[in-house]
């Protein structure tokens, strides 16, 4: 599927129909509508009857085309808008810290900002940072009455304050506070004003799911009524010890843990459950990226219907692993990911190889459904390239390489479907040190459980497991209730981790059942069915009648898997001895269907350095290969296609005949230094820049966008003269580099609607581009 950004909203029925038809023609499975900031005159403000009518029209059109249709329950992220007043807005606990003398003080309570609510005041003997304890100060008639003391003292005043965070990237008409994710009343208000109208407009029967994007409610760590909730859930009173949240002392650590756990439970009870139960009442699944702020636990996912992650990095712990672990533990066979979020920035730089490589990283992290990020709605008759999202790829039919998109998406569909079959084999568990993460989430650190946990688990732990050819699930204190300790052969508990008593008992049961509890997996890993070389990731899934393995080369060099002995369940008469994976190539190994490899001999027939011609539109001229468009000033900003042609002579056509372009050239990881670390790109300069369709004697022979850059010509080949035609497509980045209209559009909407986005890395659009036929192909004969 694709996330479909509706800018403005500035939407027209005819363009909705055209873009949905283009998605279907490319082989995409559906669209998830996301309402974001304006890129032009607003024609249907968010929440207006016209917008809701267009949502319904899009849902019906998608169904007629066989596409799934999902809707985000709000504009931008996180949920919020003009309906959110101070009573329902996200809040934080604000502290005022003062050193005072020994005299008594009367301090009036003053609301510095709308919505400020006094919480409590405390005084402790000693100067700043010196008090070993504090006592609560009485409040009467709106005055904090600090009594006299015999020495310098410190006063702490706690105020519940609206964070002030507004909805990020909001559409026109959707501006306003981010809502309080710990409040059921706030969730109900958002459902009434935003979610319910959107769902009813689309029609529940036409929706694949309703969606909530990643949680980014910054510093939201307070909610009205938390004192009562804390006492009910933790069994003691928070109020007299509230200062322990602010003054970081080791002996006060447990209260910080209990407070963090309470926030997680309030998020689950008053946000997740409220939206899931409301959606279920309409018969629609609730899908969410449940990580970030507020402090969602891995197990918080269990209160939603569909689990989604984000982020690549198969040897690390990306957000996708947070979601895929929850899916496996809580019995969800499908787990999705927002994929291509920052792919090869800026927009239009991404190649099909970039998309394939990052998709493989998500598959290796346990994902089996892709939600592309994304497809920008853009009027067809607009000037320049049209509209793009401020960050991420512009993955639509404006890309010159789009003729190969159908083959690319078909390959990803096949892998997604296959990886939804059976169950994952993950013999290792990694314990999430949630207690330590809660304790470490201080005043100056985000209240982001996932992010703190990722810091507390050494990167060597997941890397050691994955590079050994094994896989793992994360497991937390809630998940132990549904995981049989007898089914855990190995669990890694990071050194120094704090574990609650119930978890310690469960870990003891793992050991009693024959499993191991270790701090470092290096010396304790079981043997893997496949031991891969560096850079090759393995996913093992078990079916009722056998197993299969997805293997992917995640690097820019060819790598070979070697099988010295048959695997125990490898039922072929002869084992597969070797398997070479080209850069960013994947394969599926099915032992029950394996066949012996047959050695073949490649014979170089000729290097095709002949009389080549190239045609740009109707302009045909002779050309010498390699031919890089950017070397010609007249072509440096050209985005589109070119047709290369040459005649070749074949004296025989027995055996196999291949056209081979060579392997491409690896590039250094730091060759594009402006890219952030989360911006995926394939580290290779291809021999074909960036995709091609190959025809022999006007017969389609295949498309190229990834190694091995080889096409089978056998069925089209004939003895004598053959006409080889190669249609090469580049990216739209060349044209983007000179699209002054896009910059003018951004400036205009910023002037009219305020600064809601910055075009990411747009000044680097022309960097490191390689378009054209960049190598001399050869004819390879295989006998």
Features:
globular, Class_I_gatase-like, 783 residues, Galactose-bd-like_sf, single chain, TIM Barrel, Glyco_hydro_b, Alpha-L-rhamnosidase-like protein, alpha/beta
Please outline what is shown here:
With 783 residues, the chain is α/β, with parallel strands linked by helices. The strands form 12 sheets. It has an 8-stranded parallel barrel with strand order 1-2-3-13-15-17-18-19, surrounded by 7 helices.
Structure description:
The chain has 783 residues and is an alpha/beta fold. It has an eight-stranded parallel barrel with strand order 1-2-3-13-15-17-18-19, surrounded by seven helices. It has five domains: 296 residues, TIM Barrel (Alpha-Beta Barrel), CATH 3.20.20; 72 residues, no CATH class; 97 residues; 64 residues, Golgi alpha-mannosidase II (Immunoglobulin-like, Sandwich); 180 residues, Galactose-binding domain-like (Jelly Rolls). 23% of the residues lie in helices and 27% in strands. The model has no long low-confidence stretch (mean pLDDT 94). The chain contains 14 helices and 44 strands. 48% of the residues are buried. The radius of gyration is 30 Å and the shape is globular. InterPro entries: Class_I_gatase-like, Galactose-bd-like_sf, Glyco_hydro_b, Ulvan_degrading_GH. This is Alpha-L-rhamnosidase-like protein.
Helical fraction: 10-25%
Our count of helices gives 14
Strand content: 25-35%
The assigned CATH architecture of the largest domain is Alpha-Beta Barrel
Q: How many beta-strand elements?
A: 44
Computed structural class: alpha/beta
Poorly predicted runs of 5 or more residues: none
> What is CATH's topology name of the largest domain?
TIM Barrel
Give the CATH superfamily of the largest domain: Glycosidases
Write down the domain tally. 5
Strands ordered across the widest β-sheet: 1-2-3-13-15-17-18-19
Separation of the first and last Cα atoms:
42 Å
What best-fitting shape do the alpha-carbon axes yield?
globular
Identify the CATH class of the largest domain: Alpha Beta
Mean pLDDT: 94
- Biggest sheet statistics: 8 strands, parallel, barrel
Instruction: Evaluate the radius of gyration.
Output: 30 Å
